[in-house]
Amino acid sequence: MPDDLFQQVLDAARALGVTGIEAIVSEETQALTRFANDAIHQNVCEQSTQLSVRPVIDGRTARATTNRLDGDGIRRVVAEAIAITRLTERDADLPPLAEPSEIEDVPRYFDSTARATPEDRAQAVAEAIHAVSSEGQTAAGIYSTGESRFALYNSRGVAASYRETMARFSITAMAGDSSGWAKASACDRRALDPVALARSAARKADGSRHPRELPAGRYTVILEPAAVLDLVGQMFMDFSGTALADGRSFLKDRVGRKLFGENITIHDDARHPLQSGAAFDAEGVPRRRLTLVDAGVVREIAWCRQAAALAGVPATGHGFPLPNEIGEAPMNIVIAGGDTSVEEMVAATSRGVLVTRLWYIREVDPYEKIFTGMTRDGTFLVEDGKVSAGVRNFRFNVGLLEMLSNVEALSRAVRASGEETFDMVAPAMKVRGFNFTEVTRF
Amino acid sequence: MKDLALRALDAVARRGATYADIRAVDSRERAFSTKNGKIGHLSIAESQGIGIRVLADGCWGFAATDRLTPAGIEAAAALALRIARAGTLARTHEVALAPEEKYQAVWTSPMQVDPFTVPVDRCLAVLMAVDQELRHNPGVSLAEASMQFEKRRQVFVSTLGSVIDQTRCLSGAGFSALSYHDGEIQKRSFPNSFGGQFQLKGYELVDELRLVENAPRIAEEAVALHSAAQCPEGESDLILDSTQLGLQIHESIGHPIELDRVLGSEANYAGMSFLTLDQLNHLRYGSDIVNVVCDARQQHGPGLGTFAFDDEGVPAQGNDIIRHGRFVGYMTSRETAAAVGAARSNGCMRADGWARLPLIRMTNVSLEPGEQTLEEVFDVDRAIYMETNRSWSIDDKRYNFQFGCEIAWEIRHGKRTRMLKNPSYSGISTEFWNACAAIAGREHWTLWGVPNCGKGQPEQVIGTGHGASPARFRKIKVGSAYVA
């Protein structure tokens, strides 16, 4: 990528009579070693760089993107962006390009992750597979490592950049009629322990053999952090000023009200030590820490510059790249935890269900925030303070307002990684009255 | 493009790959949307890159790059081989591929109007006209309309000697009306949810969809849902329109028949399947009137799963999946075909771009038209008729599903009566298809496009096609999502 990339963008724009322009440069190298049936079966690496430009011309804007970063490619993408911008209608509410702000550096780049080799990943995978296969089980999963860089420049002087590394390890252990799962992610791959994750998954698979079928109904459930993440994480796109204005947020007519239990406090905090991602948004505005929910009361929501100006409130630095329909959303969620461990939750439960993860979660009702989905890969009956048996997986239909008003205990919050939404900091939760509506065949 | 691909092929061959295929891809996209009278989204994008897939020491390796200089290609080729050889640290067997011929071919998907030649302001004018019609209804709080176009040229070369140059053009358009009233949000979409209809066509698709003409009705329905009765909970005969049935096919037939899923490749993410190898040619998947094909050929229609060759150089094919209710076919690849005793892949390997390796994906998985008229499908004492998907969920072996739709009507003695809101239904895949009692004929059959099918790690999102006519099912559990 040329060092003077943005200067070339500026020059190309000025040659066409345009002085207001913004450029986003995204560069990444991501590698993933995938395994199934105890063997590496897909092993990949991708490397890409992308330039995305957005002119602002008399209240008009549009975006053009390319990965051709030679001089011709840069000039063409700028020309195309300007051409389609001139064809749009003027938007009186379009804000001018952002001005420079001080942006705190958040160090999340680790050479140990960036320099991970195919052999490093394969060796770790081989050891994890052995931890599962030595229990007579079959392993499947992934180990990924990568680095990414995101930089935003504009003609008013914004020059914000961020880089990070990310490693993820996920494993499913299968034992005939049962399975278990574990996953973790970290910017520094030395914080991951694939063999420990493998052993955890194998223990769950072993512990849930010969699953019983329980009837559908309302149960006390203990949701491990990944299960909390994937379900509760579905609601955060609604903490958006644009979504409120559009009438598609469940928070419409509810901001400032107590919607959840007093033990529910949620922040958006890009600088939290367990978080990842840039400390600025897609216009170069610093991400402000938000108190989304405070002791059950909805306090703050995210505002991009345009929505904030229309509402007469300060922007919070959560905007998506313009132009877009959805405005903004908090992307660095920290759900406050408590001090009850999962083991203590189990010990205090006379009858309930312990859930490892949730799957295929989809919104059933947008205002009542009812979601459906399945349990998966390690679902257990808890009786008289002990995990007593594996159980067949359930389908749930649960309203988040009700669920988060029925939380009886919280564990310490950890960095959680699932499959249905982005990583967050989340605790385990013990919830009463969780609505399992059907049982599946396994 | 061809030179890039051949350069990469030479680079991996020199390094000892026992098999290799290269895809050099050049794609362009346009996306427009409007929201409540304003531009929501207006973007164009281009991307060019190369994906290098190799076999070495019995293991797969894949490296993709957009650094298309000679040095960049050499580096990616070397990396692909290094990745493959690292796989020997956790290898249980050597990959073997079913034989395939080599092909020299050039193919372009048919279209009448190249969407990239249609002026941007003409596209925006259509969307704004839809927007105006929707917001004539004061009950509509959010009107959204969108169009998307993609043109992708891919040159495939392989160590078999194939050189296949394919260009596909996809178009999609649709709109939705959202109504907020008194603590309830309702939504109607046209011609389908999640962006509308998508096909392997040019801009002519937009004109065919008659978006502006349908906008007033959709707006009225979105508002009327507030005063509709809640869909009752219980057991009912169920009639599904073809938009919802297309997604039903996708989730409860298309995914379970992916052979790589059956063999465990997706166990950690997308899941496995309730199907096992011994069920082929034995399982009663559906009732006698259920016939399903997986067909990537042009003659099946301009589906999102239509092409001339798949992404490992196998020609497009049409295969039976369910014939008179009996399960008779999986979707396979060169690596998996032998698992079902097939001498050859049936051509279902697809990648979502240059940066990802091909996986077994649905092409066009379609329910063949039935023999009933639409009146005969509706000819029942009592049923619930549902249109247009709103939510979809299925377990990781594809047994238990639950779907929600945007709107429903009670059917009494063959006629629509009262509107119902928040309709949902659930079931077990094979039980559902064995309950199929009537399927409407060819004149009501539509080849729908599902643009957002996810699978693989790293995840790939690809478009699939599903043809369906409206159909009726006996005694299905309805209202399941709102069980108190």
Question: What keywords describe this structure?
Answer:
heterodimer; A: 442 residues; alpha+beta; PmbA/TldD fold; 2 domains; 7-stranded antiparallel β-sheet; 5-stranded mixed β-barrel; 10 helices; 21% helix; globular; B: 484 residues; 8-stranded mixed β-sheet
Basic shape of chain B: globular
Q: Which sequence of SSEs, written as H and E, runs from N to C of chain A?
A: HEEEEHHHEEEHEHHEEEHEHEEEEHEEEE
Backbone structural class of chain A: alpha+beta
Distance between the termini of chain B: 59 Å
Overall strand count of chain A? 20
Radius of gyration of chain A in whole Å, from Cα?
A: 24 Å
What's the domain count of chain B?
2
* Amount of helix of chain A: 10-25%
Q: Separation of termini of chain A? A: 51 Å
What is the helix content of chain B?
10-25%
The averaged pLDDT of chain B comes out at: 97
SSE blueprint and pairings:
The complex is a heterodimer of chains A (442) and B (484).
Chain A: H1 5-15, E1 21-36, E2 39-57, E3 60-61, E4 63-66, H2 71-87, H3 111-114, H4 118-133, E5 138-154, E6 159-174, E7 179-186, H5 194-207, E8 217-223, H6 225-232, H7 241-246, E9 266-268, E10 290-294, E11 297-298, H8 305-311, E12 333-335, H9 342-347, E13 351-365, E14 370-383, E15 386-390, E16 394-399, H10 400-403, E17 407-410, E18 414-416, E19 424-426, E20 429-439
Parallel strand pairs in A: 8-13
Antiparallel strand pairs in A: 1-2, 1-5, 2-3, 2-4, 5-6, 6-7, 8-20, 9-10, 9-12, 10-11, 13-14, 14-15, 14-16, 16-20, 17-20, 18-19
Helix pairs in contact in A: 1-2, 4-5
Chain B: H1 2-14, E1 19-35, E2 38-56, E3 59-65, H2 70-86, E4 104-108, H3 120-135, E5 142-158, E6 163-181, E7 184-190, E8 197-199, H4 204-209, H5 211-224, E9 229-230, E10 234-240, H6 242-254, H7 259-262, E11 292-295, E12 318-323, E13 326-327, E14 349-350, E15 359-360, E16 365-367, H8 374-378, E17 382-394, E18 400-412, E19 415-421, E20 424-428, H9 429-434, E21 436-439, E22 446-455, E23 460-468, E24 471-478
Parallel strand pairs in B: 4-6, 9-19, 10-17
Antiparallel strand pairs in B: 1-2, 1-5, 2-3, 5-6, 6-7, 6-8, 10-24, 11-12, 11-16, 12-13, 14-15, 17-18, 18-19, 18-20, 20-24, 21-24, 22-23
Helix pairs in contact in B: 1-2, 3-5
